[in-house]
């Protein structure tokens, strides 16, 4: 499961206090007391819009996130790994559904959400626009990408919107399996032949920086963070989450005997944290804006899967209509008898 | 295939169902989420795939979301606040002398 802390919609950047009203004051007071907001409750339009955008972006990420891994299901190195990968990819589809359902409670339809993704209007996490070139990438995605996603998502279990928070609780439980199975793949490679270990290292080299970008722009460049935290949607800042991720991951890489591709990475005893190098934000924005290695391929595959599955949906609708008609006919026959 | 004059249903045109799962024999069915399906039987099949991948349940109920009537959130205070003062409904309101022991 994957979120990405980016806000590409400038219209949502109004301060929540700029259009104060009594209802809004009451609403903000409820949030301040850590009360949950439910679908029937009054909410400011900006709150609703922010949530629809964030939850749907999150749902799209789950669904598109099936693609980089799906291609490896038939090429997994053993039956056990194949079963595990199938289960993981199925989970991602389920996570997409929990989240679409949560977004729909805010008054948007599934059709609108899917249209927004397919027309390119909606974003999804840019991490899925990178290639999965080797089997080690499947391990690295679980270990790092899902690991980063968990860091992002655990605080969302306490977010102010009830349906989103409840979906996140279920998702986080399942996500832990995803991270561990990834670590297990990388570990097996690191304990294998020198070629296998080199494959793991090469994969880490490619995924490390894109993973750090998943936490979104620096707090100083993210005007949206202020509003989202006032609304109780974002609990911990991008930079704090990123730091937490680096701090726990360094020890894991050391255990595996892998080196993190950052010459500036070192322990800072004064801060009690690892210092790390500069992130290439130009690359981040390039990929977000469509010029990543796989943006086109991902959208192409997503849309074809949707179109090629249309006959299944049509068949289900036809079957339901036939059964409903038969039930009516049976009831009519009983009445006549 | 369907003829072009009758536009086929997109999955989003399917009605919404609320899903309830009984986690263990003897326990209540609990609301777990919602999903779209072509009919109730289809909703059960989808709910099985989506909500019981880790043996979360032994039984599934689905209810068309439309069939649920909810209390008005605007009347929350009127409906529920009066009970706050009725603490004498709870057994802990009453002091039982220690000599009496369990009651």
Mean pLDDT reading of chain B: 87
How confident is the prediction overall: mean pLDDT of chain A?
91
Order of helices and strands of chain A: HHHHHHHHHHEEHHH
User: What is the beta-strand fraction of chain B?
Assistant: 15-25%
What is the CA-CA span between the terminal residues of chain A?
56 Å
Largest sheet of chain B: 3 strands, antiparallel
Quaternary structure classification: heterodimer
Amount of helix of chain B: 10-25%
Structural class of chain B: alpha+beta
Overall spatial form of chain B: elongated
Question: Biggest sheet of chain A: strands side by side, in what order?
Answer: 1-2
CATH architecture of chain B: Roll
Spatial extent as radius of gyration of chain B: 23 Å
- Low-confidence blocks of residues of chain B: 1-10
What would you note in describing this structure?
- The complex is a heterodimer of chains A (337) and B (103).
- With 337 residues, chain A is mostly helical.
- Chain A contains 13 helices and two strands, in the order ααααααααααββααα.
- In chain A, strands 1-2 form a two-stranded antiparallel sheet.
- In chain A, helix 2 (45-64) packs antiparallel against helix 4 (79-104), helix 4 packs antiparallel against helix 7 (162-190) and helix 6 packs antiparallel against helix 7 (162-190).
- With 103 residues, chain B is of the alpha+beta class.
- Chain B has one domain: Phenylacetic acid degradation B (Ubiquitin-like (UB roll), Roll).
- Chain B has two helices and three strands.
- Chain B has helices spanning 40-51, 76-80, and strands at 16-22, 29-36, 59-64.
- A three-stranded antiparallel beta sheet of chain B has the order 2-1-3, covered by helices on one side.
- In chain B, strand 1 (16-22) and strand 2 (29-36) form a beta hairpin.
- The radius of gyration of chain B is 23 Å and the shape is elongated.
- Residues 1-10 of chain B have low confidence and may be disordered.
- Chain A binds chain B through residues 38, 40-41, 87, 90-91, 94, 97-98, 101, 104, 109-111, 114, 166-167, 170, 174, 310-311, 313-314, 316-320, 323-324, and chain B through 1-2, 8-14, 16, 33-39, 41-42, 49-50, 53-54, 70, 73.
């Amino acid at each position: 499961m994957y979120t990405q802390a980016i806000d590409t919609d400038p219209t949502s950047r109004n301060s929540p206090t700029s259009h104060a009203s009594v209802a809004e004051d009451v609403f903000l007071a409820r949030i301040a007391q850590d009360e949950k907001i439910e679908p029937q409750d009054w909410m400011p339009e900006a709150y609703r819009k922010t949530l629809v955008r964030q939850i749907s972006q999150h749902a799209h990420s789950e669904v598109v996130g099936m693609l980089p891994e799906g291609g490896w299901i038939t090429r997994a190195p053993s039956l056990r790994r194949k079963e595990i990968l199938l289960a993981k990819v199925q989970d991602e589809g389920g996570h997409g559904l929990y989240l679409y359902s949560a977004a729909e409670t805010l008054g948007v339809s599934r059709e609108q959400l899917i249209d927004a993704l397919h027309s390119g209007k909606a974003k999804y996490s840019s991490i899925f626009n990178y290639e999965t070139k080797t089997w080690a990438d499947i391990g690295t995605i679980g270990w790092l990408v899902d690991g980063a996603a968990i860091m992002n998502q655990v605080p969302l279990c306490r977010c102010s919107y009830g349906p989103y928070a409840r979906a996140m609780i279920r998702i986080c439980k399942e996500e832990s399996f995803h991270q561990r199975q990834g670590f297990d793949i990388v570990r097996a490679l690191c304990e294998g032949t020198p070629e296998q270990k080199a494959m793991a290292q090469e994969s880490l080299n490619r995924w490390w920086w894109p993973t750090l970008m998943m936490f979104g722009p620096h707090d100083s460049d993210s005007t949206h963070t202020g509003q989202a935290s006032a609304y109780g949607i974002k609990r911990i800042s991008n930079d704090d989450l990123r730091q937490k991720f680096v701090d726990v991951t360094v020890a894991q890489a050391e255990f595996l005997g892998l080196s993190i591709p950052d010459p500036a990475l070192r322990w800072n005893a004064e801060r009690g944290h690892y210092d790390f190098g500069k992130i290439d934000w130009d690359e981040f924005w390039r990929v977000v804006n469509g010029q990543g290695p796989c943006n086109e391929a991902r959208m192409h595959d997503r849309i074809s899967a949707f179109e090629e599955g249309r006959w299944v949906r049509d068949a289900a609708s036809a079957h339901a209509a036939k059964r409903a008609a038969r039930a009516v006919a049976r009831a009519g026959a009983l009445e006549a008898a | 295939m369907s003829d072009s004059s009758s536009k086929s249903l997109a999955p989003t045109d399917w009605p919404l169902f609320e899903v309830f799962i009984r986690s263990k024999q003897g326990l209540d069915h609990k609301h777990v989420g919602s999903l779209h399906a072509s009919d109730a039987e289809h909703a059960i099949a989808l709910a099985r795939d989506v909500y019981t991948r880790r043996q979360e349940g032994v039984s599934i109920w689905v209810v068309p979301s439309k069939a649920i009537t909810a209390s008005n959130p605007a009347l929350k205070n009127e409906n529920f606040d009066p009970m706050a003062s009725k603490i004498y409904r709870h057994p802990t309101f009453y002091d039982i002398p220690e000599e009496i022991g369990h009651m």
